[in-house]
Amino acid sequence: MKLLSQLRTSSFQLALLYMVVFATSVFLLLAFIYWRTAGFMTAQTDATIEAEIAGLAEQYRGRGVNGLITIIRERVAREPNAKSIYLLTTDEHVKLAGNIQKWPQSTPTEAGWINFKLDETVGWMGNQRLARARIFEVQGGLLLLVGRDVEELTNVKKVIENTINWGMGITLALALLGGFLMSRSTTRRIEIINNTSRRIMNGHMSLRMPNRGTEDDFDQLAENLNQMLDRIVYLMEGIRHVSDSIAHDLRTPLTRLRNQLENTLMSVDNDEAREQARRAVAEADQLLATFNALLRIARLESRGNAGDVKTVAIDALVEDACELYEALAEDKDQNFEQELEQSVNIEGDRDLLFQMFSNLIDNAIKYTPEHGTIRIVVRKENDEAVFSVQDSGIGVPDEEKSQVFQRFYRVGKSRSLPGNGLGLSLVNAVAEIHQARIELTDTHPGEESPGLTITVRMPAVVKERRKRRRKTINAASPAIEDDTSIV
Length: 487
Known about the structure:
By secondary structure, this protein is α+β, with helices and mostly antiparallel strands. It is 53% helix and 18% strand. It has helices spanning 2-8, 10-78, 151-201, 217-267, 271-303, 314-324, 326-331, 350-367, 423-433; strands at 84-89, 95-98, 113-118, 129-138, 142-149, 309-313, 335-341, 345-349, 373-381, 384-391, 437-441, 452-459, 468-473. A six-stranded mixed sheet has the order 11-12-10-9-7-13, with helices on one face. A five-stranded antiparallel sheet has the order 2-1-5-4-3. A two-stranded antiparallel sheet has the order 6-8. Helix 2 (10-78) packs antiparallel against helix 3 and helix 4 packs antiparallel against helix 5 (271-303).
């Protein structure tokens, strides 16, 4: 798998492209050398044959046909195994002189050149060899063939071709190896940056990109990323400090205001005044719940880890949370289903986990219409403990699923419902502390009311014997007085 991932990297693909360009350049260079070398040797052979023909033509002009036959026979007798090839025949290919017996069957070019084999088909008595010759007509209807043995020339060409092939193969192999090593070094440095980035995204904002001190491109990239991270952390801390300070500073006067309104509510006798005072107290409670939620989220994010870590059976914890919401679900006549797998344990803070499960269940009840269905599931998948809550409510559009964890963010369809948009922000903060993943999907995709399924996946502890139990009720118990549910 590592090799396949290495081959998919852009650095290896870039090295591969460079290898193709380099190999093509080498191939063109070697092909040019071969063309020039082989062409030069062929030209030398043709020039030798032309010189032979010029000498024979001069003899023919001075001594006639008989002189031509005589000179050919003398040359053959003097060097019977020479590299020169001669054959003089009549127009019916009857041999008059030469060191081959029959006319070659090869078809000549327009210039009269032919390539043929020296074997028994032409009456050659030696080893089979290759030859190149030129044919022309002598006055009187005679045909003259003058050529050369080109076996050695052919062998040299083969040696050059083999050398080029091996050279190309070695070039490609070395280029591939070099590209792999180069991309491996580049990929290793990129992977270091990726791993550090993933850890930063998981909440370790104090980490920074390492550099080697070589001041190369990667060091410059790491330096720029570190400066960007410093700036982001500075801005985040500034925003967080402002929001936390506002929440902390306003909570006390709001509490006083709420208490004064409550005292006013108890002292007035006018029904209309009492109703207005009661509404003011409710608004004050809502503001206090918002500020409390902001402070709670700030404490969780600044803590960075769970405080009282213990082994927690989340099936029992979820069952307790469900029982708290019985009355709330009963008021809306909702079908409340539970499928809780026993002995599903994780390591974490029981109070924080209870708050997370309670918020998700309260969220499902709030956005599921009357007579709707809510299904709570706890199970173990491989090494993960899985909690999911499914509802048949209005759902969340796909383009907004990644934004609902932001503070004060509310889905457009839910703005008319009570809430402050901090519920899932708190859930997300608890999930990060427990190294959990949250997934949002549609319960009934494609329908007008698709509903929402929120799945939380957490690292499970040791495997234990598990049982499965199902429970279906039409109610839950009273909601806790903490408005930190999703909006």
